[in-house]
Amino acid sequence: MRDFTATVDELKTVVRMFCEDREWDRFHNPKDLAIGITTEASELLDIFRFKDAAECREILEDEECREAVCDELADVLYFVLRFAQTNDIDLASALESKVYKNGKKYPADKSRGSNKKYDEL
């Protein structure tokens, strides 16, 4: 399965089947899935903690380190997909809506090339 061929629905199905095979539904309430997202995102962050931009690039160029990054990123995605799947959230619609909202908060003419928060523009 590759990004250019997989759909979000297919990815949700992979996660659902994995969990159903293990009878994990009872453990996957919104709180615990949100904790999983945060925990895995923190593990991804830990790989890059206290590294400058050049060191971060080196991490992604090293095969073993890149695999660790991919594993943690996949763990984050797993929990995001599982949260959406168990709570009937359409991720494509949610993303589209959020990008629209962010477009209003960060108009291109004011935010282009800037890292300022919307209330600082």
Question: How would you sum up this structure, described in words?
Answer:
There is one protein chain. This protein is mainly alpha-helical and 121 residues long. It folds into 2 domains: 1-89, MazG-like (Helix Hairpins, Orthogonal Bundle), CATH 1.10.287.1080; 90-121, no CATH class. The protein has 6 helices and no strands. It has helices at residues 8-21, 30-48, 53-61, 63-86, 91-105, 108-111. The longest helix has 24 residues, at 63-86. It is globular. The N and C termini lie far apart (41 Å). The model has no long low-confidence stretch (mean pLDDT 97).
Structural key phrases:
Helix Hairpins, single chain, 0% strand, mainly alpha, globular, 121 residues
Relevant CATH superfamily of the largest domain: MazG-like
Tertiary shape: globular
Q: Pairing-aware structural class of the strands and helices?
A: mainly alpha
Helix content: over 70%
Low-pLDDT parts are: none
| Total count of helical runs of at least 4 residues | 6
CATH architecture of the largest domain: Orthogonal Bundle
CATH topology annotation of the largest domain:
Helix Hairpins
Proportion of strand residues: under 5%
Integer-rounded radius of gyration: 17 Å
- Count the domains: 2
Instruction: Using the coordinates above, name the CATH class of the largest domain.
Output: Mainly Alpha
Characterize the biggest β-sheet: none
Oligomer: single chain
- The count of β-strands is 0
What is the string of helix and strand elements? HHHHHH
Mean pLDDT: 97
> How far is it from the N-terminal to the C-terminal residue, by CA?
41 Å
